[in-house]
Design brief:
Elements: E1 2-6, E2 12-15, E3 22-26, E4 45-48, E5 51-62, E6 68-73, E7 78-80, E8 83-85, H1 87-95, E9 100-110, E10 114-123, H2 131-139, E11 151-154, H3 168-187, E12 191-199, E13 203-210, H4 214-221, E14 227-231
Parallel strand pairs: 10-11, 13-14
Antiparallel strand pairs: 1-2, 1-3, 3-5, 4-5, 5-6, 7-8, 9-10, 12-13
Length: 232
Amino acid sequence: MRAIILDEAGRFQRAAQTDEIGTLVIKGPNVFVGYLDPRHNKDLWIEIDGEKWLNTGDLGRQDSDGYFWLAGRRKELIIRGGHNIDPKLIEEALHKHPAVAVAAAVGSPDAYAGEVPVAYVQTKPGALVTEEELLDFAAARIPERAAIPKRVRIAHQLPLTGVGKIFKPALQQQEIENVIRSEAETAGVAIINIALDRDPQLGLVARIRTAGGANLLQAALDRYAFNSEVRD
């Protein structure tokens, strides 16, 4: 097992230093040779000095004693204009507010920066706080300027997995839908339906049906990194 630093294209750049968080990769006789469907092997292997290492997708660090410490999932990183933002930085700041029960930070699609951080908050029963107050509170406690969330949204209840963990993909999909509706409103296009489907080759695809003006909305959505198909 190794902790490594990848470049923006996902290629090996260098080994992580002691206690520096990087992507965890593994190799050995216990590692499988890949998926039967070759499409699922995309970005699965990292070549280091001519050897193939399995990209676990986990972030972690190795301490001075050789032990590894997990730090989260790489796919949860928010990438804002080339800045890698750990959502925990935002979540830990918001958890310090006495009104916050649960907080989750995700990347929201942005036409210029790729993604911008936004935070969803579930407040404690009976707590009274505004989204603006929480945004100011977080901004004052996050040392990294790029990590300051663009928005804070208060939700009645955050989506959970079967084992009780916050299901961030649902929040990310909500952000994609919010962007689509905002762009449609700006373009004066009426939306009939939005469906977010998982394509085996393209990944998540937003399929939008409009009441006219599909080309106009498609041109606006093409500025974003997520895949979209707009039809009248």
